Amino acid sequence: MAYASQNGYGKLSWFPAAAGFLLGGVALRLIDAVVPHLHLENDISKAEGIQPRKKKLSKTALLFLAITIHNFPEGLAVGVTFGTLAGGNMTLAGLMGAIGLAIGIGLQNVPEGAALSIPIRADAKSRIKAFYVGSMSAIVEPYRSYHGSCSCYVDDGYYSLCLGLCSRCHDFCGNRGIDS
Question: Which residue would you say has higher pLDDT here, 83 or 151?
Fold first, then answer.
């Protein structure tokens, strides 16, 4: 909110973060309701989202979609951080924080990829296919990072909105059991 109050929001400095938080919750709830996915502890009969009529998705495919949904806000958070730095707010501390965030999220993707690769390998698939699917669960992060970076580079007003959106999306994922 300090960032928003410095950029002309005045008494409404809370609004961009609150709007982003609400928008993030609505957006991820919509994605959660539509995209078929499965939480780790559930059986395939408890899959959520709209299921295809002709062919049921495998447990691995549903888990892949759940982890991919979870990766949306992570990529956006990295992009917002670097986009804000590129927009003229470059400081050494900010740059080190952005690099630390990117490295931390990248390292955290390793166990998420393993959570997909191990069941795939257990289903008698090749190591290459297991590695490929585990890696592809994070493919949305560079896209969302680019989107967040461009949004904040073009207009500083998106900073609080995007970070509010990231926090709500990640909070939603954690509460729904994707992180746990």
Answer: 83
Residue 85, in any domain of the structure: yes
Q: From the CA atom positions of the chain, what is the Rg in Å?
A: 18
Report the number of distinct structural domains present in the chain: 1
Integer angstrom CA distances of residue 117 from 64, 83, 173? 10, 32, 21
Q: How sure is the predictor about 103, in pLDDT bands with cuts at 50, 70 and 90?
A: very high
Does a structural domain hold residue 50? no
- Integer CA distances (angstroms), 166 to 42, 79, 98, in order: 26, 11, 15
- The tens digit of pLDDT for each residue in 42-92 reads 777 777 777 777 777 777 777 888 788 778 788 888 888 888 788 777 888
Query: Is 146 a member of any domain?
Result: yes
Return the DSSP state at 63: H
Its pTM stands at 0.70
CA distance 4 to 7: 5
Structure-token pair, residue 131: 């590695």
DSSP-derived letter for residue 49 is S
Higher pLDDT, 44 or 118: 118
Place of tokens 């759940």: 66
What are the CA-CA distances from residue 56 to residues 41, 47, 53 (Å)? 19, 10, 7
- Beta-bridge partner residues of 37: 48
